[in-house]
């Protein structure tokens, strides 16, 4: 049985009157793919790819602007709702307090729809770039299951926003007394503001597209040759290596502020007396800091499932960031190769001096012991006894000098064994190179002498030839 389409077709140029866009996807057209028949074709392909990448960067920038615009409006709307709420009843509203939230939510909804459209445009541009890289013009090749799943997830995240209208939901309270109410009413639009912070994933994409590794063609080509994907983890690891403290400090402060505001929205409606007070955001910033560092004084408590979930997330992220900070600081505390080499040379010099001094003290103690022994043999009476005592003292000094000499020799040997591997390798390489240089010089001298010997033999043979 023949397949419905050929498994392999030779890439051919389009026939006369047939463009790349008119080729049939079933494989029965004039060919499949783009043929690189000249430098002009390659240049056209590169120019199209560069144009699409620039367009993708601009679309990503506008996605970030719209996401931040909608997020800021949602925060303003949530604070406006909190200021106009007191207990289960609302404060008598003026026309401005009615029109302002409605106008904000309509604006947020319009920006959300425009953001969804730009997300679709962004992924369509990515499909076109992949088709250009593969040399194809059939769009189904670039649309994979992974790309579709990613698109659906992004559309779901970007579509969440507060809707016009008024509505509340009952929020269960935890750890309350029997006489207190176990539920509280929270506006639905306030709860819809919390997942809008997931839009900040677009900021990660913005960082990747505007990084040096992505913008510089030479760097990007080098990464491609080394099979390195220029994505967000790669850019973050690079930035953490270059300036770790700045990145960690900025990320931590942003995390504290965002989680503190989200905790405020989850917990402020449990206090019906002062819902619109600024005390809540200050208390929960303090709560975020002490929970982030796993301190937990217990002076600020959370009473909702939402607040406890955010507290758990804070503890987990705090543990990870603390471990990352310790690892990066430990790496920064390590000495460089030049510094290790300087310390190695200084330590070896000090141990060598100590070794020489110990050897000198052994010789001195030996000479003094022999001197006292001769005096002991010469002296008589009390002088003999004093010479004998001095001789024993010099023997003890000699034993201490020998022990110190052995200890210094052992330290020097251990220092040479535990020196840095790279320094030892470099030293061995230099020593081997010096030996090879000496061998080459010896070979050159030997070759010169052999040449002179050959010339002498030739002259001698010429002198002896006429005689025979």
Automatic annotation (TrEMBL):
InterPro entries named in the record: CaM-bd_dom (IPR004178), CaM-bd_dom_sf (IPR036122), K_chnl_Ca-activ_SK (IPR015449), K_chnl_dom (IPR013099)
One Pfam entry name: SK_channel
Residues of the Calmodulin-binding domain: 348-430
Compartment annotation: Membrane
One cellular component (GO) term of this entry: membrane
Keyword entries, A-Z: Ion channel, Ion transport, Membrane, Transmembrane, Transmembrane helix, Transport
Top-level taxon of the source organism: Eukaryota
Membrane found in the keyword field: yes
Region described as Disordered: spans on this chain: 1-30
Membrane topology annotation: Multi-pass membrane protein
Gene3D superfamilies from the UniProt entry: 1.10.287.70
Residue spans crossing the bilayer: 59-78, 98-122, 245-263, 284-302, 308-330
UniProt keyword Transmembrane present: yes
GO molecular function: calmodulin binding; small conductance calcium-activated potassium channel activity
Listed PANTHER family: SMALL CONDUCTANCE CALCIUM-ACTIVATED POTASSIUM CHANNEL
Protein name per the record: Calmodulin-binding domain-containing protein
Organism, as annotated: Ascaris lumbricoides (Giant roundworm)
């Amino acid at each position: 049985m023949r397949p419905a389409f050929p498994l392999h077709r030779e890439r051919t140029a389009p026939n006369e009157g047939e463009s790349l866009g008119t080729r049939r996807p079933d494989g029965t057209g004039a060919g499949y793919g783009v043929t690189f028949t000249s430098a002009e074709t390659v240049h056209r392909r590169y120019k199209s790819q560069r144009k699409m990448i620039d367009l993708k960067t601009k679309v990503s920038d506008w996605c970030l602007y719209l996401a931040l615009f909608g997020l800021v409006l949602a925060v303003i709307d949530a604070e406006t709702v909190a200021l106009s709420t007191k207990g289960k009843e609302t404060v008598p509203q003026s026309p401005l307090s009615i029109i302002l939230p409605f106008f904000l939510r309509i604006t947020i909804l319009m920006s959300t729809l425009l953001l969804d459209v730009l997300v679709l445009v962004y992924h369509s541009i990515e499909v076109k770039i992949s088709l250009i890289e593969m040399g194809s013009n059939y769009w189904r090749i670039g649309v994979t299951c992974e790309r579709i799943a990613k698109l659906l997830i992004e559309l779901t995240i970007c579509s969440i926003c507060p809707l016009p209208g008024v509505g509340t939901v009952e929020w269960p309270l935890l750890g309350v007394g029997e006489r207190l109410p176990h539920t509280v009413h929270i506006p639905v639009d306030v709860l819809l503001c919390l997942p809008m912070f997931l839009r900040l994933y677009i900021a990660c994409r913005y960082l990747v597209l505007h990084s040096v590794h992505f913008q510089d063609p030479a760097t990007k080509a080098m990464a491609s040759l080394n099979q390195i994907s220029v994505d967000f983890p790669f850019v973050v690891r690079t930035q953490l290596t270059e300036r770790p403290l700045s990145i960690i400090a900025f990320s931590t402060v942003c995390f504290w502020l965002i989680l503190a505001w989200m905790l405020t929205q989850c917990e402020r409606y449990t206090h019906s007396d002062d819902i619109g007070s600024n005390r809540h955001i200050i208390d929960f910033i303090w709560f975020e800091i002490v929970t982030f560092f796993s301190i937990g004084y217990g002076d600020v408590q959370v009473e909702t499932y939402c607040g406890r979930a955010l507290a758990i997330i804070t503890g987990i992220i705090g543990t990870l960031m603390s471990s990352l900070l310790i690892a990066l600081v430990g790496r920064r505390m390590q000495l460089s190769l030049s510094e290790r080499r300087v310390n190695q040379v200084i330590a070896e010099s000090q141990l060598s001096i100590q070794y020489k001094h110990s050897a000198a003290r052994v010789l001195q103690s030996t000479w003094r012991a022999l001197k006292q022994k001769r005096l002991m043999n010469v002296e008589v009476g009390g002088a003999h006894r004093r010479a004998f005592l001095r001789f024993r003292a010099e023997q003890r000094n000699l034993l201490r000098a020998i022990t110190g000499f052995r200890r210094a020799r052992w330290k020097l040997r251990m220092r040479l064994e535990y020196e840095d591997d790279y320094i030892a390798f470099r030293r061995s390489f230099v020593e081997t190179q010096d030996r090879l240089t000496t061998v080459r010089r010896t070979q050159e001298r030997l070759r010169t002498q052999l040449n002179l010997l050959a010339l002498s033999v030739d002259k001698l043979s010429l002198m002896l030839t006429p005689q025979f």
